[in-house]
């Protein structure tokens, strides 16, 4: 190693990754519901790092029940093209963030499981994370259901708010904003599961 302040090129041990945006996204990954579905809603937001800066190459996965409160059984979650599959609600989506950390998906409001408010299970992959992160997106439309949800009830109000999306009265279809903060003052509440099946236990 030489003296002085000359910049040295990064070595393999100094690089960051993996870079999920180059491998995991697929066409139509944010289309959990077809565009023509009368109940379609948009969920969107940004992924921020601990300093509040956008994370440009994160992946956001969404898992949820259908409006009737049961997990959908339609095939084709990874192949939403033309034909019959384009008319199905799959309950699974995977979207990459853009250069400003933004992500967006089209879905349906999920039905509730007994004793729990309607929610979407969210999994976040991002560079620099040794393990992906699990959280939940709740809809703000039913305050009574939110107040009775056991997870939300266990959190103080400020922390609880990081899991509840904000309704946006824009456009003909409902829109909900859900920003994800990986660290810092506004850090989203993340969940610890012993088994991946527990993460998907929205049923």
Automatic annotation (TrEMBL):
rRNA-binding as UniProt keyword: no
UniProt keyword annotations, A-Z: Dioxygenase, Oxidoreductase
SUPFAM superfamilies: Aromatic compound dioxygenase (SSF49482)
Matches recorded under InterPro entries: Intradiol_dOase_C, Intradiol_dOase_core, Intradiol_RC_Dioxygenase, Protocat_dOase_a
Enzyme Commission number(s): 1.13.11.3
Broadest EC class assigned to this enzyme: oxidoreductase
Domain Intradiol ring-cleavage dioxygenases: 40-184
MF-aspect GO terms: ferric iron binding; protocatechuate 3,4-dioxygenase activity
Family: Belongs to the intradiol ring-cleavage dioxygenase family.
Name used for this protein in its record: Protocatechuate 3,4-dioxygenase subunit alpha
Organism of this sequence: Streptomyces radicis
Gene: pcaG
């Amino acid at each position: 190693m030489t003296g002085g302040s000359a910049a040295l090129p990064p070595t393999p041990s100094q690089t960051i990754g993996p870079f999920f945006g180059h491998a995991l996204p697929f066409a139509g990954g944010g289309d959990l519901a077809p565009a023509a579905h009368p109940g379609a809603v948009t969920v969107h937001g940004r992924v921020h790092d601990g300093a509040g800066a956008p994370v440009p190459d994160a992946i956001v996965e969404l898992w949820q029940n259908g409006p009737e409160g049961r997990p959908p059984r339609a095939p084709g979650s990874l192949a939403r093209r033309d034909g019959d599959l384009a008319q199905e609600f799959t309950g699974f989506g995977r979207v990459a963030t853009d250069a400003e950390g933004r992500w967006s998906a089209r879905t349906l409001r999920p039905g509730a499981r007994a004793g729990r408010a309607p929610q979407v299970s969210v999994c976040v992959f991002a560079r620099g994370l040794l393990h992906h992160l699990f959280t939940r997106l709740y809809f703000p439309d039913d305050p009574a259901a939110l107040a009775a949800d056991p997870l939300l009830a266990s959190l103080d109000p400020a922390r609880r708010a990081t899991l509840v999306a904000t309704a946006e009265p824009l456009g003909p279809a409902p829109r909900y904003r859900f920003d994800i903060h990986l660290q810092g003052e506004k850090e989203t509440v993340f969940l610890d599961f012993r088994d991946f099946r527990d993460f998907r236990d929205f049923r």
